[in-house]
Amino acid sequence: MAAVKEECKGNVKAQLAKLFEVSLKVTVPNEADVDPLIAACTGKFGDYQCNNAMGLWSKIKGKGTQFRGPPAVGEAIKNNLPTSEIIDSCSVAGPGFVNVVLSKNWMAKSIQMMLIEGIDTWAPQPPVKTAVVDFSSPNIAKEMHVGHLRSTIIGDTLARMLEFSKVKVLRRNHVGDWGTQFGMLIEFLFEKFPNFEDATETAIGDLQAFYKASKQRFDSDPAFKERAQQAVVRLQGGDEKYRRAWAQICEISRTEFHKVYQRLGVHLEEKGESFYNPYIPGVIEGLTKQGLVEESQGARVIFIDGINIPLIVVKSDGGFNYASTDLAALWYRLNEEKAEWIIYVTDVGQQQHFDMVFKAAKRAGWLPQGDNYPKASHVGFGLVLGEDGKRFRTRNTEVVRLVDLLDEAKNRSKAALIERGKGEEWTEEEIESTADAVGYGAVKYADLKNNRLTNYTFNFDQMLNDKGNTAVYLLYAHARICSIIRRSGKDVEELKNKGTLVLEHKDERDLGLHLLQFAEVVEEACTNLLPNVVCDYLYSLSEIFSKFYSNPECKVIGSDKETSRLLLCEATAVVMRKCFNLLGITPIYKI
Ligand code: ARG
Asked: For the DALR anticodon binding domain, which residue ranges apply (predicted)?
């Protein structure tokens, strides 16, 4: 069998799959399109496993096959495998699992190549050029709550994973800047500040409080309610005075949101709900022409198979709603922005809304049936809970202010640094930037490490612990690796090109294998939109590194394997930094 040439980089699982694909075609020519099922394994038989034999057997048995059972199919798959420098040896176990032991030389060479060519050569290659990530998306004048914090953190990570994969990402802040609530708010503010247009941000102050007060007025005072409703009509009709007030309110909120984004180092481009207003009538008309829109109790709706409530696209008063805007936004993203993957990050409570919008888009033929691209995905997440197991709130039961949360995380990290004596050693600036990195990193990591669908409990003590699966532990671990390299006094740039990385000892090989699995892990995280997969990987990487580093047989500085082991340290630091980068966490280099 001819050798299959493979580039010495990237995704091990994908490269093995290529080899097994060749073998499967030869082994069972009549089942030409079987997909290789390759999984990493930790058993004593190998590093990876091909699990096709059993499934194939069930397809071919009794149809005149020469094989006498799954183990024989496995044996043939093994024998038909093209020769490759990736594989050291193969064996068949149990009911036909083909186990692969990777070649140590190839592993070492691949890692060194990554060091030379950069970690970007290990990036996933999703089948799309442009994606929209719709995230954060708070509502003007309402509170930006912990749910929006989750959306901001998760959405930023997803955007980063796609950007790393060379996808052009349109980071969209779908701000709630339109709707009937503006009528009551503007009317209330006009009453309070007769010269509203001259009022400064500080005079208007806390928009949320005015929003609440105006809502109360709306519910209790029919005359006010009447005026508020007229205000909506004026605003939507383009009345100058109302438009200006609206724009001013949006601007004040924007400044508040921006403070949070700046702290978190997240950038987004605002295209709020109002941006899509001009597109709604045309989109609804198009859907109507296609025969998708029906009358129901005075409203115009789209019925969706399998869901018993219809999607209302025009309310009975003729107005548009959240769903109308989302349909227009989806249309715009597909047609004007040419996005092939549109990802929405909100709490799971909105799952049905998106499910309906996406199904309507499929009915309209905007999106293909099934799971093909162009694709729309809803990334749902659970609640953030307080210590009492209820929705996270501060003592006075007001919603938690995000900025306060971030302040506290930072202050606690700073206190921990001072306690470690860094106050005397470091400059004020070093303390500040490290406290920023650790504090904000801790908040992000505590969120990202959970499967996003599960609720999690917000706990400062836990997230700022320097032991266990926390950002603090991981950031310190990275800083320690950097300090090993510094203490060696060697120039890694030179070692990368002139030295040789080898994987002799078991602990070195285990570390090497884990490093090599970075590419497939990030690909999985990216395909399934699951940041926690990167967190799990990062945590186990630092555990495996620590096993290697604390083994006296793997001494780094001063040993005869110093060059190779320093390169392993460097590779670990590079991969850890990339993980931090994907998670939106700033690494630290000393501790
Ligand atoms: N503003 C909404 C909220 O706070 C989230 C918007 C999500 N994006 C969208 N295209 N609907 O719940």
From this structure: 474-591
Cα 383 to middle of ligand 1, angstroms: 16
CA distances from 56 to 27, 43, 61 (A): 10, 23, 8
pLDDT beneath 70, residues of the chain: 1-9, 32, 198-205, 393-400
329 lines ligand 1 (CB under 6 A): yes
Beta-bridge partners for 301: 294, 312
ipTM above 0.95, yes or no: yes
The answer on 248 and 341 residing in a single domain is: no
Domain that holds residue 203: 181-264
pLDDT of residue 396: 53
> Contact, 48 vs 13, CB < 8 A?
yes
Contacts of 404 (CB under 8 A, 6+ apart): 394
Residues 74, 146: one domain? no
- Mark which of 264, 293, 318 sits at the end of a domain: 264
Which of 368, 384, 400 is the endpoint of a domain?
A: 384
The reported pTM is: 0.94
pLDDT of residue 290: 97
Q: Identify the pLDDT of residue 2.
A: 37
CA of 273 to the centre of ligand 1 (A): 9
> Are the CB atoms for 108 and 501 separated by under 8 Å?
yes
C-alpha 536 to ligand 1 mean position (Å): 29
